[in-house]
Amino acid sequence: MQNKILNKKEIKKIKEALICQFGYFWEEDYVYLLNENDRLFIINKDLAKIELQKVHIDRIGLYVAEVKKEQLRLSKEGSLLLVTEARKKKKKIRNIIDLTKEEVKSYFQGNDLEKDLGTESKFMLLQYQKNVLGCAKYKEGKIINFLPKIHRGEVIL
Question: Is the distance from CB of 67 to CB of 38 less than 8 angstroms?
Fold first, then answer.
């Protein structure tokens, strides 16, 4: 797998997309890598000093998002990183929704959630009692479940 290191212009687009979607962009200075499946990874700048093109690396960095046109679908880890840092900096996050206990159980069983959040199609951050669960797409009155099967289960709460 060959990762493309993003330049400042490409990083600026990522930053603008996250600010547009969620109102915040993490302030830590990372190197951004994009793989052939449009998955975005971040690594520490010190690690990026290694000449990555000369080394065969299967996977590197923290998977934070999937790039979809002009939007980003944050991974569970990317969602947690964004919200945790925003809370530390006392910044407000947009498009974050609190789920009930029943909704969380249904979500972790792999079900879409019926919820009226307006007419706009958008990515939402999901949380339960201040615990970040991940990112999902809201469309036509439903929160579409993107939770990987490996994270699903019956006994959650």
Answer: yes
What is the Cα–Cα distance from 71 to 96, expressed in whole angstroms? Answer: 16
**What is the pLDDT at residue 100?**
94
Instruction: Say how many CA atoms lie within 13 Å of 105 toward its Cβ.
Output: 6
**76-118: per-residue pLDDT in tens?**
999 999 999 999 999 999 999 999 999 999 999 989 999 988 8
- Residues paired with residue 113 on neighbouring β-strands, in sequence order: 143
Which residue ranges form the domains of the chain, and what is each CATH number?
1-94 (3.10.450.720), 95-157 (3.10.450.720)
Dig out the tokens for 57 from the structure. Answer: 């690396």
CB 76, CB 134: distance < 8 Å: yes
Q: Is 74 exposed, middle or buried (0-12, 13-18, 19+ CB in 10 A)?
A: buried
Instruction: Please state the pTM of the whole predicted model.
Output: 0.86
Number of alpha helices (DSSP H) and beta strands (DSSP E) in the chain:
3, 10
Query: What dihedral angle (degrees, nearest 10) is formed by the CA atoms of 84, 20, 98, 78?
Result: -40
